[in-house]
Amino acid sequence: MNNTPESPPELPSEAPDDEAAEVQGGAGEPPEYDSKGRRCGLLAIVGRPNVGKSTLLNALVGQKVSITSRKAQTTRHRITGVRTVEDSQFVFVDTPGFQTKHGTALNRNLNRTVLSSLSDVDVVLFMVEACRFNTDDAKVLSLLPEHKPVILIANKLDAVNRRADMVPWLKAMQERRNFSEFVPLSAQKPSDVERLFAILKPYLPEQDWFYEEDALTDRSDRFLASEIIREKLFRLTGDELPYNCTVVIDKFEEEGHLKRIAASIVVERDAHKGMIIGGGGERLKRIGSEARQELETLMDSKVYLELWVKVRSGWADSEEHLRSYGYE
Ligand SMILES: Nc1nc2c(ncn2[C@@H]2O[C@H](COP(=O)(O)OP(=O)(O)OP(=O)(O)O)[C@@H](O)[C@H]2O)c(=O)[nH]1
């Protein structure tokens, strides 16, 4: 997209729709869906406090992000990290109800929250310390949904003095639940962490990626920018806006202590476009201004942000559209 807006930085503008017809491809059926062997899925890391969940997550994704939108692309979840390895994209999500910090008791009331937050992940990573299992571990385990693949991650392997203890311990664990896999590892050991991707891959459904390949790896600021804009978008449009609108970063340039970001909010219908722009463009201005302020704080630099709204009917179903938005 080569928008060269006349407007000054930060002033949200409306992009012309002239590409819409062309992208829709005119006559003919939309192309049949084909993930081309790609996989993408949601994963949750659960476990009692102090077993090493954050250590593992940070090692898996390289950097932690925090997204507060109620309507992130993956429905109810707060995404804590994304990592794409070859043809597979791993999306790690938070599980409300497992906020067990400061020794908060896990009680029955949390049960429902936990179950619903885990109901649409593809695989659960249940983490314990190798050769240990206490009542808090048991409580967490008892909250996991019955019909969901659960992988047992036995962390802190480096701290196990007698490796021979592992065999009876693993046997006892298998009696507690029919785990899909046992993975003894050390979250502090990079080679163990990298090995985990190959083990997890078969649990991701074959489908196209939710995010760009470089999300949260070498260009994570770009990913963060699209998430922050999306968060403001949903926050300021309330429940009016359907989930399937997206934010595409068209430009992300750094000049010293300044970042120039141009982004398009892509919606399916004209009505949605109107909703986002608001009377006199007020709403879009606010989305832009709030996103810019937050990005400046997060990135610790000055940010010029240009926002556009575009209508792409059926974009989410069309491979061609996805390609044109850089999803390939
Ligand atoms: N020896 C050893 N220590 C580890 C390993 N992984 C994590 N730790 C340590 O275990 C402690 C807890 O790690 P965290 O990653 O904060 O644990 P957590 O499960 O996220 O804890 P909460 O945030 O309280 O739920 C830290 O001191 C880590 O350094 C490991 O593989 N080996």
Q: Would you kindly provide a written description of the structure presented here, covering whatever features stand out?
A:
This protein is 33% helix and 21% strand. The chain is of the alpha/beta class and 328 residues long. The chain has two domains: 19-33 and 214-324, GMP Synthetase, Chain A, domain 3 (2-Layer Sandwich), CATH 3.30.300; 39-203, Rossmann fold. Helix 7 runs antiparallel to helix 9. The longest helix is centred in the C-terminal third of the chain and has 18 residues, at 220-237. The chain is elongated and about 70 Å long. It starts with 18 loop residues before the first helix and ends with a helix. Mean pLDDT is 76; it is low at 1-31, 66-76, 99-109 and 315-328. The site of guanosine-5'-triphosphate (GTP) has 17 residues, from helix 2.
Domain unit count: 2
On the 0 to 100 scale, the average pLDDT is 76
Structural class of the secondary elements? alpha/beta
Strand content: 15-25%
CATH class of the largest domain reads Alpha Beta
Helix content: 25-40%
Helices, by number, come to: 10
Q: How is the main sheet built?
A: 6 strands, mixed
Shape descriptor:
elongated
Ligands bound, unique: guanosine-5'-triphosphate
Q: Round the Cα radius of gyration to an integer and report it.
A: 22 Å
Strand arrangement across the biggest beta sheet: 2-3-1-4-5-6
For this structure, the CATH topology of the largest domain is Rossmann fold
Distance between the termini: 15 Å
CATH architecture type of the largest domain: 3-Layer(aba) Sandwich
CATH level-four homologous superfamily name of the largest domain: P-loop containing nucleotide triphosphate hydrolases
